Amino acid sequence: MTYIIKKIATLIITLFLVSVLAFLAFQIIPGDVVTSIIGTEGTPEMEAALREELGLNKPPVERYLNWAGGVIKGDLGVSYRYSKSMNEMMPVAELIGDKLPVTLWLALFSLLLTIFISIPVGILWAGTKNKFLDGLLNGVTQVSMAIPAFFLGILVTFILGVVLKAFIPGAYVSYKKDFGAFLHYMIFPAIAIAIPKIGMTARFMRNSALTEIKSDYVRTARSKGVEEKRILFRHVLRNALLPVVTFLGMIIAEVIAGSIVIEQVFALPGIGRLLISSISTRDFPVTQILILYITFVVIVVYFIVDVLYRVLDPRIREE
Amino acid sequence: MINGKPNKYLIVGSVMTGIVLLLALISVFWTPYAPTKMSASERFMHPTFTHIFGTDNFGRDIFSRVMKAIGTSFLISVFVVTVSGLAGVLIGAVTGYFGGIVDTVVMRVVDAVNGFPSILLALVMISLLGKGRWNIVIALGIAFTPSFVRIVRGEFIRLRDADYIVRARLMGVNSVRILFLHILPNVFSVFWVSVMIGFNNAILAESGLSYLGIGVQAPDATLGSMLSDAQGYLGTAPWYALAPGLTIVWMVLGAALMGEGISRRNAVR
Fold first, then answer.
1. A214-247: per-residue pLDDT in tens?
2. A259 part of contact set with chain B, CB < 8 Å
3. Quick one: average pLDDT of B142-171?
4. Residue partners of A67: CB distance under 8 A and separation at least 6
5. What is the C-alpha separation between B118 and B149, in angstroms, rounded?
6. What are the C-alpha distances in Å from A156 to residues A137, A140, A252, B203?
7. DSSP class of residue B41?
8. What is the domain count for chain B?
9. For residues A68 and A77, what is the distance between their CA atoms, to the nearest angstrom?
10. Tell me, what DSSP letter sits at residue B49?
11. Closest approach of A50 to chain B, Cα-based (Å)
């Protein structure tokens, strides 16, 4: 119990420090925001009014508290670049709102693909005595990790889209318009994200299973005459999965990072694309919030994985 | 790095990297065609003996552009590894050898940063610094430093209580001398492996950022920006995308094999 409390306290402190860093980092950027929005033709009165509206003339601590309070309440400020209409500024929350589902589905799909393919492959790989298969898997996983994400995306587009015509590249359908068509299109970017992750996780799973196979309980099961397949999937799998759970935390972080790039390749209007365009156009409120959110997600994922590992393994819990 | 028996990983990796490096060096003085020379009559020519990688949407020779682009990617990656490697050695040596509160704090930060995908860190840095090739060197240099700190620090901790170091300390050799003349040379064998890994990540990150359009800016050709241009012509000219893409894979595999070769040789010794 004390462990959980300690962990949660560390989590909160980490999140707080990250938010302070994210706030401070964007304070030191050269250039004045107000002139960049209004342009050089604004009158001093207009500038003062905008400064007041954006809350830029308050002391830093107050601005941090306002900003952080807004983040918690869902009021994320306004974009410098996008606007709703001539006189109305675009709230960042609204901008992020419709892009979030795209990225979430993409991440979920790639994660499911990774888990459901790499774990069986990894365990069968550990159990195989076939030299050729072993070499083949070794080569394939090695190469899958050497191909950069965006090139993999382009290869998937070319092979599955242009040659095999399984989908039309660039013909993204919004989830609001046709959910089925949306899911169909999302499979392909998810494959592109998942391939190197499958390679990594399968290798990890294999090594984890190989250490388990050498243990006493496997020898006992074998001498009892338990079928080899049953040993692999009933006895070894459970124990070998434990280290993989922590590894998956890293994989989730990588999947999120991967989706930033892959969204660009497949022209998906998700968080990653918004992040890249906000960086290109120096739309700092958007960049700041997105980086903060992505960081938060990564930190929380690591936290959950840590706790899960303890719940799953009674040996660590009792220490 | 020179002594010890080379193995097949090291040989194949060095040859692959050597070819790329040679092409980059030659491109400084000579390319088969001028990389920016356009030709309306020669658009989208598939690979032939005159244009071995074919031509692009402006009729430019892709092989010449790839040669130039390799040079840019190589140079940026070398700078990135130099910046992060030097910073890593300095921070890792001092924290590992002396330990204490500074070490604890630095390691906390390093651990936190290491858990993060490096492309994300690079994006944060670029968003603060802005685009452009020197900003990329700084951004990636900072993003890659923690991994070097971790490796170098580990080695310094392992060696700081070795007999010959304790003796040197007793003889009154000053700390700077111990750090850089007595310990550092023994760290190099492990350090080179992480240099290769860092070089790989630098190539991937640089081409990734250039692909996203926030890296090296036009008119300079980089492998990443060529891929991004080529993507629109996958149906008509797939070779345009394959040339820079496979070049990146080739460079990454070459450096990875070299790293593997060096670490295997270390294990033998």
1. 888 888 888 888 888 888 888 888 888 888 888 8
2. no
3. 87
4. A23, A77
5. 15
6. 20, 16, 21, 21
7. G
8. 1
9. 11
10. S
11. 23
Residue B34 maps to a domain = no
SS (HEC) of B215-258: CCCCCCCCHHHHHHHHHHHCCCCHHHHHHHHHHHHHHHHHHHHH
Judged by CB atoms closer than 8 Å, whether chains meet at B235 and A162 is answered as yes
* Nearest CA-CA partner of B206 in B129, B123, B147, B124: B123
Q: Please indicate if any CB of chain B lies within 8 Å of the CB of A261.
A: yes
Query: Which superfamily does CATH assign the domain made up of A98-271 to?
Result: MetI-like (1.10.3720.10)
- Those residues whose C-beta lies under 8 Å from the C-beta of residue B222, and which sit 6 or more positions away, are B69, B72, B73, B206, B207, B210, B215, B216
Q: How far is B226 from chain A (nearest CA, A)?
A: 11
Residue B33 and residue B130: Cα distance in Å, rounded?
A: 33
Of how many residues is chain A composed?
Answer: 319
A86 at the B interface (CB within 8 A)?
no
Q: Is B214 on the interface with A (CB under 8 A)?
A: yes
Distance CA(B26)–CA(B71), nearest Å, equals: 9
Residue B54 lies in a domain: no
Answer yes or no: is B49 within a domain.
no
Residue-wise DSSP of A211-235 = HHHTSHHHHHHHHHT--HHHIIIII
Contact A194, A110 (CB under 8 A): yes
Secondary structure letter of residue A91 according to DSSP? E
- Quick check: A243 and A205 in contact, CB under 8 A? no
Query: Among A128-132, B61-65, B111-115, where is mean pLDDT lowest?
Result: B111-115
Closest-CA residue to A159 (of A112, A202, A191): A191
Q: What DSSP assignment string belongs to A183-221?
A: HHHHHHHHHHHHHHHHHHHHHHHHHHHHHHHTSHHHHHH
Judged by a CB distance cut-off of 8 A, whether residue B248 touches chain A is yes
- H/E stretch holding A89 reads strand A89-91
Residue B108 lies in a domain: yes
pLDDT, tens digit, 9 for 90 and up, residues A152-186: 999 998 888 888 887 877 778 887 888 888 888 88
Is B223 in contact with B235 (CB distance < 8 Å)?
A: no
Count the neighbouring beta carbons within 10 Å of the beta carbon of residue B110. 21
Can you tell me the distance from the alpha carbon of A245 to that of B125, in angstroms, rounded to the nearest whole number? 30
Note down the domain range covering B237. 8-18+62-267
Q: Please name every residue paired with A91 in a beta bridge, in sequence order, or none if there are none.
A: A78
User: What number of CA atoms fall less than 13 Å from residue A96's CA on the CB side?
Assistant: 23
Interchain contact, A154 vs B234, CB within 8 Å: yes
| pLDDT greater than 90 at residue B97 | no
Instruction: Choose from A14, A28, A154, A168 for mutation: most chain B CBs within 10 A.
Output: A154
CB of B139 within 8 Å of any CB in chain A?
no
- The region, left, alpha or beta by phi > 0 then psi within -120 to 50, assigned to residue B54 is left
Contact of B206 with B77, CB cutoff 8 Å:
yes
pLDDT band at residue B43, thresholds of 50, 70 and 90? confident
Residue B195 maps to which CATH number? 1.10.3720.10
Residues in chain B: 269
